[in-house]
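Fold this complex.
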Amino acid sequence: MIYALCLILFLIGLYGVLVKKNIIKIVIGLIIMDYAINLFLLLVGYKKNGIPPIISKGDDIAEFARNSVDPLPQALVLTSIVIGLGVIALMVAIAIRLYERNGTFDITKMRRLKG
Amino acid sequence: MNIIPLFIVLPLTVAFIIPMISRKFIKLPDVLGNLTTLTLVFLSVSVIGKTGVYMIGGWKMPLGINMVIDGLSVLMLVTINVVAFASTLYSVDYMKMYTSKLRYYSLFLLMLTGMNGVVLTGDLFNLYVFLEIASIASYALVGFGCEYDELEAAFKYLVLGIVASSFILFGIAVIYGSVGSLNMAQISEVIKQRGMNNALLFAAALFLMGFGLKAALVPFHAWLPDAHSSAPAPISAMLSGVLIKTLGIYTIIRVVYNIFGISERLSLILMIMGTLSMVIGVLLALGQWDFKRLLAYHSISQVGYVILGIGLGTPLGILGGLFHLINHSVFKALLFLNAGSVEYATGTRQMEEMGGLSEKMPVTATTSLIASMSIAGIPPFNGFWSKLIIIAACIQAGHPVLALLAVIASILTLASFMKVQKYVFFEKLKEKWNDIREVPLLMCVAMVILSVLCVFMGLLLIPAAWNSFLNPAVQVVLEGTGYALRVLGQ
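Structure:
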């Protein structure tokens, strides 16, 4: 069920990218897609009532492995967030430059390249 | 000392050194950039014929990230670094048109780092990270001029590029959830034991969409003509020459053949996408009058040939596909450099306004004639051999219709490049171009290097070169999921 919600979030983002005409709304759509995937990655490693994946002295290894959540997706999400930050910064920078050139955020008015 | 990590460490280090130390020395970015790419060319030539696995930080396979070098990686490494060297050599004079050379070289080397990383890594998430490094650097480089056209193209490229990356990351997450590993060899091993299930098929579809967008195969091709024609010429050469192949085709080959294992269904999808790109790309190119835009549409068409050859799945088809991949890197990079030279001299990209430039620009005209004949498939240039192999492979695999389409696309390519030669270089010189001159020496040297490669790359098919360079790459693709055994066994 929760996976389906995650997919719906992803599709909302994709809808925003494909349908909206305003650059800022497209950027927001991309950010939503990014977050949907981050959420999905976290869910992959999630366990109900799981404990944090930090082992301390005297823990039983087998029991720890059974109870703790998977730490790897959390590390992946960190990387993915950092990459997302870089991409979004670049995207917003280009959007600002486009606004300076055009005075509008409407992509239907930016159609010089075609054919 | 193991030289595999140097392919990533060297350009990455120099990319950060250049903006730090070269504010005071104007020439230093040029020197450092060219030295780095030249070193990488020698390094990549020195690993021809080698195979091996390198564990980053000494961590053993399932825990750490590993790098794998095999025939296919070597083939891509040599191609990437040779084209990168020609591009940096060309940039020395060409990039004087733009403002900030140190940022340019820094981004260029980051892009190179990403591409070298993609072809070397043996870990799926690591592949995604390198792919994003290369992509982000290329978004910034497409918009490097900050003029209106460049910004519009960069924004389109950026949006579609991020959608593609999202699909790829989604696919990786699905695979991790289903298999429980990110190591490509281990994933392949598990898939071989359990067979495909619905989650893995979903992941395969996501990968085909994501990598297909990066490779600009036909349903996903809309961003390519804008981005590749608006970027500075050496960047266009890198994008069309190697970036779409590294981020798109190489990754498709690795994922489809070495991780999932080829099946009838995947093979059919690749063949259909390849044929569509091949035909539609060249049809769209016919009506173009912007020099670089025409070349960009031809990239879509030629990438179609590569994917068609790979999709056939027969030894001959794979050989043709891979051979066409490296040939296309060389001649398309050369054509974009030619277009850049023409733009450098005349200041325009519209072919109707040019004419008779061969009188004034003999080096550019000759090299572009060689490149045009290569891409049109005229013997004895390199493009002829690879197209011949692909067409023969189509007939051998029992698809005469595809062979016919490949021949037709090739004839249309020839027609299109006859138009280029006629309007740009032949005919009478127009009055307004009376005082143009040939481009500076280093730009000529870069073009001559690539055109010499165009003429002699057919020799890669003679047995000695074939056994050490092309055949190992074909064997890697053919062994399919045997990749897992080879990597895990070491």
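The interface with chain A takes residues 125, 129, 132, 136, 139-140, 143, 146, 148-149, 151-156, 158-159, 162-163, 165-166, 169-170, 173, 176-177, 182, 225-226, 229-230, 287-288, 293 of chain B (CB under 8 Å).
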